[in-house]
From TrEMBL:
GO function terms (MF aspect): carboxy-lyase activity; hydrolase activity
Pfam families the record matches: Amidohydro_2
Protein's organism: Arenibacter echinorum
Protein name per the record: Amidohydrolase family protein
InterPro entries named in the record: ACMSD (IPR032465), Amidohydro-rel (IPR006680), Metal_Hydrolase (IPR032466)
Upper classification of the organism: Bacteria, Pseudomonadati, Bacteroidota, Flavobacteriia, Flavobacteriales
GO cellular component: cytoplasm
GO biological process annotation, one example: secondary metabolic process
Keywords assigned: Hydrolase, Lyase, Signal
Residues annotated as signal peptide: 1-22
Residues covered by the Amidohydrolase-related domain: 120-353
Length: 364
């Protein structure tokens, strides 16, 4: 058989091979390009200068901040709040680095080490250290999700979010007038069965360590309930509930909680996909609670910010999200009014976080 005669057979086999692959394609591989053509465009720069209240810069004590500032300026990010400040000498080094280079572009939150809760004098020592960190320039306290999930007391027992031995910390923040940004638990589907009904199936398949159960280490309802009870016990302290308290997919329940807990604010870090699939409902929520919602991104990936801007600012339809395992659905714009955007982007943060440079924002 000549090469000329073999050519049609090769084409046939290649076509069959491609078709067989498509029939056996996994869900992870299936990621079609939409054929829909509707008006709209990406937004690469926020309409107003904004404060990111949920940033993480772990190398801030020693890093060159110039490249970071250059990326921030492209986005119109006026102030980044670094929640990974640590405490003691570490936070002092970060604050010194900022002071020497960009004194008005960053704020740093302190962290509390919960190791040793239950030992004599732990509470007094922790409060003293926090007070020193605030005096040295920290603008608030960040509490990681390890509280309620992984942290244990001196006897090895899981440390509940509303453990009474931590009360002095929350009270001190209220006394000093600084907010507490707290992340408790994770999305509820991480506790659900991993089956065809679970919207986070792909994420749990690709990140299996995120799976939880009612005994690993407690149910989602228990941890979230602890957080809410803690908020209520300390009404003079302002709490920023990270990730909208994992209720961005249930804004009706979140609205009831907002009404019930007036000292609770919410940040939108890592949940924009929930808002982008319910633009009308989310629009109403943001208008109603416009004084208590703050912008936050969580991970520092400048290329992902345009999705946030587009969901918040535009009325665009059916545009892609940036991370398939978080959301395999398309986004829609919420088309928020300018007055709501200004509060979300900077006014609410200026109100809650002391000592930020107001001159970086439009004159009111």
């Amino acid at each position: 058989m000549t090469l000329k005669n073999l050519a049609p057979l090769c084409i046939l086999l290649l076509t069959f091979s491609n078709e067989a692959f498509s029939q056996n394609m996994s869900f992870e591989e299936y990621n079609p390009v939409s054929t829909l053509r509707v008006p709209g465009k990406e937004i690469h720069r926020a309409k107003f200068p904004f404060i990111d209240v949920h940033g993480h810069q772990y190398q801030m004590p020693t890093q060159d901040l110039s490249p970071l500032i250059a990326d921030m300026d492209k986005l119109n990010l006026a102030i980044m709040v670094n929640l990974s400040g640590g405490s003691g000498e570490r936070i002092k080094q970060s604050l010194e680095n900022i002071k020497n280079h960009y004194p008005n572009r960053f704020a740093v939150f302190a962290n509390v080490d919960f190791d040793g809760v239950g030992k004599p004098g732990w509470s007094e020592k922790a409060v003293t250290q926090l007070e020193a960190d605030i005096k040295n320039g920290a603008k608030g306290l960040k509490v990681y999700k390890s509280l309620g999930l992984r942290d244990t007391d001196s006897s090895g027992k899981r440390l509940a979010v509303d453990d009474e031995r931590l009360s002095a910390i929350w009270e001190k923040c209220g006394e000093l007038g600084v907010p507490v940004l707290i992340h408790s638990a994770d999305p509820k589907p991480f506790w659900d069965e991993v089956n065809s009904d679970n919207e986070r199936w792909l994420e749990l398949k690709t990140h299996p360590r995120r799976k939880r159960s009612a005994t690993d280490p407690a149910s989602w309802e228990q941890i979230i309930g602890e957080q809410h009870r803690m908020f209520k016990k300390h009404p003079k302290t302002n709490f920023i509930n990270a990730h909208m308290g994992w209720y961005a997919n249930d804004l009706g329940t979140l609205a009831s909680l907002m009404d019930e807990i007036p000292n609770m604010y919410v940040g939108i870090g890592a949940i924009i996909a929930e808002l982008g699939r319910q633009p009308k409902n989310a629009h109403k929520f943001f208008v109603k609670y416009q004084d208590r919602v703050l912008f936050g991104k969580d991970s520092w990936k400048p290329e992902e910010f345009p999705t946030y801007f587009r969901v918040l600012e535009s009325d665009d339809e059916y545009f892609p999200y940036h991370k398939k395992y978080h959301a395999f659905w398309a986004m829609y714009g919420m088309d928020l009014p300018d007055e709501v955007l200004k509060k979300l982007y900077y006014r609410n943060a200026l109100k809650l976080i002391p000592g930020l440079d107001k001159s970086l924002f439009p004159k009111e």
